[in-house]
Each structure stands twice: as C-alpha cells, then as structure tokens.
C-alpha cells in the first residue's frame, strides 16, 4: 500500500513566477507536482492550496492555519509536505514543532532558492526528497528537507540567501541526508502514539539585537511594549555596564516581564554565567537564557507558551522543558 501524503502549498520562490514587480507566488501545488511526475511511484498525493504568499508575509496567524490544516486532515493521511518560502521557513518549522508535538507522522517543510519553472532550479530535487522522506517508514515530527539535508524543525536556520545549500542545522546534527534519492538516517526523532495539537499563540514577542552602543531607550521601549522580549547579545551573553541596561532588565523581570537572553552568534549558544557582564543576569531568578536554543525557536516557543502559562514559574518550566530537542544544554540538568 502506498502512503497517502497531503501536499500543502503556501507560496514561496518554489511557486513563484516573474512579474513586473519581481518574483511572486502563483504556482499551485498541483502544478508543482506536475514537474515531478515520478513522485507518484513513491506515494499517493492530495493537494491543498492554503496560501499563496512570499514567506515574508507569513506570520503567527498562518502558522495556526497550517497546524489547523494538519489537525483536520491528520487521520486521513500518513504524512504531510508543506511547500513554503525559504526566508521564514525556519520560524515556521519552529512554530509547527510547538503547535504539533510528538507527531508520529512526518511533517516536512520544503521550498527552493529558484522557481520551479527555471531550468537550473533546486525545486524538483527538494520536492522529490521531501516526498521520499514523507513516505518513508520511521520518519516522525517536523523537519525541513532541503538540498539533501533533513533538519529537525527546532534546529533549522537559513544560512545562505542564494546558494542551494540554504539551511543549516544549528547546535545539532542533521537527522538524515538524502543522497541520490536514498534516505540515509542518523537519528530517529522521538514521537508519541498521538500528536498533541495546540491552537493558540501570543504574537506579542519581540527581539532586540544589540549593537555596540544600543540606546537604553530602545530597550526600555521594547520591554514596555512586548509581553516577552528576547535580547540577542554578544558572544556567550551579557549587557553593557553603562546606560542602566542591567537595572532596566532586572526591574522588568521583577515586575513579571518575560526576558530571554541569547546570543547573536550562530553556533554553541549562550552561557551568561561566564563574564561579569552576564553573571548577574544569570543569577537573577526572573531572567531566562536560551543556551543552545535557536532564536527562531525562542520566538516561537514564547508565542506558544505565553497563552498556557499562568505564573512566572509556569513560563520558566515550559521554556526549559525540551520540545523536539529544542534545548539540550547540560546547564538544565
Ligand atoms: N522570498 C522568498 C520567500 O521566502 C524566498 C524563497 O522562497 O526562497 O517566500
């Protein structure tokens, strides 16, 4: 029996055509599929056009829409392939990892750096590889399949704007590779017998990337106007001593604001306790630290957990409870 896969189209470069105003999505999932007729040998595919958007226009409401479409169709299919723009795909993969937890069926996100209508496009390979993964036995949960890599949804980041090699798995290995149409597995992701679906997000989460000389007024404004603020600081993490930033953050945390410290360095994560610029924050019971979690995950995890948490203690517990291997630091043990 061939596996039944639902192919959900959301737009992106893969589905784009040249218009006067630049590349614009306009190719539906049926048409995408017509470029890879050999997929029919791997699985039976049904198509659902959910959105037709550049992923720059995709946000939390669309993540809920995608999770809702999977929930509605979960019983009728063995796996899901979502075609999506690459620009925010890592955020969507993170969000889907929180909205659909422990799925025994694969939920694969893919896309391309070049539209499917172009001769030298990566679209066809990425689609074939994605359907191969979606139809394979033992593939579970949310991942991105791109340029021969299978990356856990909680570990992906777009690291190249133009090359086919667009995504990297951050602080965690690829869970599999696809080489010449063969799936080479390294890690089998954990799953439950039934997925747990969530249907709410709080989008009022903000991110402040520090630069040398960031004005404290900016920090003050962002703390005031968001329900949770992620601060991407330098290196293993810290805040400048001048300008009263430490006091601003500590006062906000003491007043119940959720503040997460992380790093703008891509690899190896934060460790606030190392330097005097960070240790007071790490010792402040009200401030959270992302450690090896990606910023994409920190954003999506906060949006997911804020509606579930009633107290600061709930927020801390949910933030530090690993979901689909999003946080693995030894510091939590
Ligand atoms: N701007 C496009 C998008 O994210 C880029 C892509 O798909 O590669 O929708």
From TrEMBL:
This is asparaginase. It is an enzyme of class 3 (hydrolase). Residues 4-183 form the L-asparaginase N-terminal domain. InterPro entries: AsnA_fam, Asp/glu_Ase-like_sf, Asparaginase/glutaminase-like, Asparaginase/glutaminase_AS2, Asparaginase_C, L-asparaginase_C, L-asparaginase_I, L-asparaginase_N. It holds the Pfam family Asparaginase. CDD domains: L-asparaginase_I. Substrate binds at residues 55, 86-87. Keywords: Hydrolase. GO terms for molecular function: asparaginase activity. The active site is at residues 13, 86. It comes from the Bacteria. PROSITE patterns: ASN_GLN_ASE_2, ASN_GLN_ASE_3.
């Amino acid at each position: 029996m061939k596996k039944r896969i639902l192919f959900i189209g959301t737009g992106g470069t893969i589905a784009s055509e040249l218009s006067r105003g630049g590349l614009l999505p306009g190719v539906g999932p049926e048409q995408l599929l017509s470029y890879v007729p050999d997929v029919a040998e791997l699985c039976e595919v049904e198509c659902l056009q959910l959105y037709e958007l550049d992923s720059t226009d995709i946000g939390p409401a669309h993540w809920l829409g995608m999770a809702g479409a999977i929930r509605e169709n979960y019983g009728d299919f063995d796996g899901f392939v979502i075609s999506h723009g690459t620009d925010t795909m890592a955020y969507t993969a993170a969000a889907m990892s929180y909205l659909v937890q422990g799925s025994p069926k694969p939920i694969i996100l893919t896309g391309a750096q070049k539209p499917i209508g172009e001769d030298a496009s990566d679209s066809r390979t990425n689609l074939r590889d994605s359907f191969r993964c979606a139809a394979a036995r033992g593939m579970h949960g949310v991942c991105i399949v791109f340029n021969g890599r299978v990356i856990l949804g909680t570990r992906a980041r777009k690291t190249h704007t133009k090359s086919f090699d667009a995504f990297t798995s951050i602080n965690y290995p690829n869970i599999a590779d696809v080489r010449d149409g063969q799936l080479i597995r390294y890690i089998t992701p954990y799953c439950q017998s039934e997925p747990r679906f969530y249907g709410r997000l709080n989008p009022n989460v903000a991110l402040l990337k520090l630069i040398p000389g960031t004005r404290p007024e900016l920090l003050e404004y962002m703390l005031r106007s968001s329900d949770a603020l992620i601060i991407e600081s330098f290196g293993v993490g810290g805040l400048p001593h001048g300008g009263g930033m430490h006091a601003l953050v500590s006062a906000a945390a003491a007043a119940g604001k959720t503040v997460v410290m992380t790093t703008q360095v891509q690899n190896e994560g934060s460790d606030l306790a190392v330097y005097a610029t960070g240790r007071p924050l790490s010792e402040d019971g009200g401030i959270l630290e992302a450690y090896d979690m990606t910023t994409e995950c920190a954003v999506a995890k906060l949006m997911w957990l804020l509606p579930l948490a009633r107290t600061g203690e709930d927020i801390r517990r949910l933030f530090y409870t690993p979901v689909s291997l999003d946080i693995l630091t030894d510091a939590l043990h």
